[in-house]
C-alpha cells in the first residue's frame, strides 16, 4: 500500500519555511564574524579601581517610579556596587513623568506636563531632553561630568562601574556602550517573551563592532555612557520619533565623527513579563526602522 500523497499546500508551506530559514544565513554569518572579532573585549575583564574620581550621573528614565519596585532595585544596585569599589563621586537622577514620584526624594526629577521641546521630541526623548536642559541650567554639561543611561529595570554590578571608569580614564571615546543580559526574573513571566529576549545579548556583538567601527547602525539607550557636554551638543530633541537612541548615534557621528567606543561593562535587565509589552516594543522598532536606516545611510555618505 503506497503512502498518501503530501498535499500541495503543505509542500508549498514547507518550501516557504525553508526559504525563510536559508534567507537568514547571510546575516547569521555576519553575526558570527562579529562574535569572533569582539570576543576578547566584549566583556571587560580584570578591571581594578583607580582613583580618577570623575563624576558620573546615573540617570534612570521611567514613566513612573511608583508603579513598581524595579526603580528602587536599580538605585540599590548602584549604591551597593559603588560602595563595593569605594567610589563616591557619583549622583543618581530618576527622570520621571509621574508627579507623585517627588515624594520619594530629591533625586526624582519630574518632567513638567506642559514641557515641550523646541523640535517636538516625544515620550522618552522628551524626558531625556528635559534632563539635558536641567543640567545646562545647573552648569553640569561640561567635560567634568559623564551621564550613564539606564532603563527602569536596569541593574548594575561592580564590574559595570569599574569598566566605565576605566573607559573614561583611558580616554577611549566620548560615547560608549556595553553588553546587556536579561537574567533578572527570567522565566517568571511569559516564557515566549523570555525566550524572545534571550537572543538579544547575541546581537550585542554586532553593536560592539559598530561602536568600534562607526557609524553605528544600532544603538541601545541603556548601558549608554556619554560625556555631558557631548550630550548637550547633540541633544535628544528629535522630531516625533521613539528611536531616539538610534537617532542620537547618527547625529553624533554626523557632527563629531568617530567618538564612539565599547566600555565592556555588563548591565543586567529584566525581560518583559508578558507578551503585550514585547509586542509594543517590536512594533515601535519596526515603525522607526525605515526612518533611522535612511538617516544612517546619509551618515555614511
Compile the SSE list and pairings.
Blueprint: H1 8-23, H2 25-38, E1 55-62, H3 70-84, E2 90-96, E3 108-110, H4 123-138, E4 145-151, E5 155-156, H5 158-169, E6 175-177, E7 180-181, H6 191-198, H7 200-212, E8 224-227, H8 228-234, H9 244-256, E9 260-262, E10 267-268, H10 275-300
Helix pairs in contact: 2-7, 9-10
The share of residues in helices is 40-55%
Spatial extent as radius of gyration: 21 Å
Output mean pLDDT: 82
Order of helices and strands: HHEHEEHEEHEEHHEHHEEH
Strand order in the largest sheet: 3-2-1-4-8-6-9
Strand proportion, as a percent range, falls in 5-15%
The major β-sheet equals: 7 strands, mixed
Question: How many individual β-strands?
Answer: 10
- By CATH reckoning, the class would read Alpha Beta
CATH topology: Spore Coat Polysaccharide Biosynthesis Protein SpsA, Chain A
Question: Distance between the terminal alpha carbons, to the nearest Å?
Answer: 66 Å
CATH architecture label: Alpha-Beta Complex
CATH superfamily: Spore Coat Polysaccharide Biosynthesis Protein SpsA, Chain A
Explain this structure.
By secondary structure, the protein is an alpha/beta fold. It has a single domain, classed as Spore Coat Polysaccharide Biosynthesis Protein SpsA, Chain A (Alpha-Beta Complex). It contains ten helices and ten strands. A seven-stranded mixed beta sheet has the order 3-2-1-4-8-6-9, with helices on both faces. Strands 5-10-7 form a three-stranded mixed beta sheet. Helix 3 (70-84) links the parallel strand 1 and strand 2. Mean pLDDT is 82; it is low at 294-301.
Amino acid at each position: 500500500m503506497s503512502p498518501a500523497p503530501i498535499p500541495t499546500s503543505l509542500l508549498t508551506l514547507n518550501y516557504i519555511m525553508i526559504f525563510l530559514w536559508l534567507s537568514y544565513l547571510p546575516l547569521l554569518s555576519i553575526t558570527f564574524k562579529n562574535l569572533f572579532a569582539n570576543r576578547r573585549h566584549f566583556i571587560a575583564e580584570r578591571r581594578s579601581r583607580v582613583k580618577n574620581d570623575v563624576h558620573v550621573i546615573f540617570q534612570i528614565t521611567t514613566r513612573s517610579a511608583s508603579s513598581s519596585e524595579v526603580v528602587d532595585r536599580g538605585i540599590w544596585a548602584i549604591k551597593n556596587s559603588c560602595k563595593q569599589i569605594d567610589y563616591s563621586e557619583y549622583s543618581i537622577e530618576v527622570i520621571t513623568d509621574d508627579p507623585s514620584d517627588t515624594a520619594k526624594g530629591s533625586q526624582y526629577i519630574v518632567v513638567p506636563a506642559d514641557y515641550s521641546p523646541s523640535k517636538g521630541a516625544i515620550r522618552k526623548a522628551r524626558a531625556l531632553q528635559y534632563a539635558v536642559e536641567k543640567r545646562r541650567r545647573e552648569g553640569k554639561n561640561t567635560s567634568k561630568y559623564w551621564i550613564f543611561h539606564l532603563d527602569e529595570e536596569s541593574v548594575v554590578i561592580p564590574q559595570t562601574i569599574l569598566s566605565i571608569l576605566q573607559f573614561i580614564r583611558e580616554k577611549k571615546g566620548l560615547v560608549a556602550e556595553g553588553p546587556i543580559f536579561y537574567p533578572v526574573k527570567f522565566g517568571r513571566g511569559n516564557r515566549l517573551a523570555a525566550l524572545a529576549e534571550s537572543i538579544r545579548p547575541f546581537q550585542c556583538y554586532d553593536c560592539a563592532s559598530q561602536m568600534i567601527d562607526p557609524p553605528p547602525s544600532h544603538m541601545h539607550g541603556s548601558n549608554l555612557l556619554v560625556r555631558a557636554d557631548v550630550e548637550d551638543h547633540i541633544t535628544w530633541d528629535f522630531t516625533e520619533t521613539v528611536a531616539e537612541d538610534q537617532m542620537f548615534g547618527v547625529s553624533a557621528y554626523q557632527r563629531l565623527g568617530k567618538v564612539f567606543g565599547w566600555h565592556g561593562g555588563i548591565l543586567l535587565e529584566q525581560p518583559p513579563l508578558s507578551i503585550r509589552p514585547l509586542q509594543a516594543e517590536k512594533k515601535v522598532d519596526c515603525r522607526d526602522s525605515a526612518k533611522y536606516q535612511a538617516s544612517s545611510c546619509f551618515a555614511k555618505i
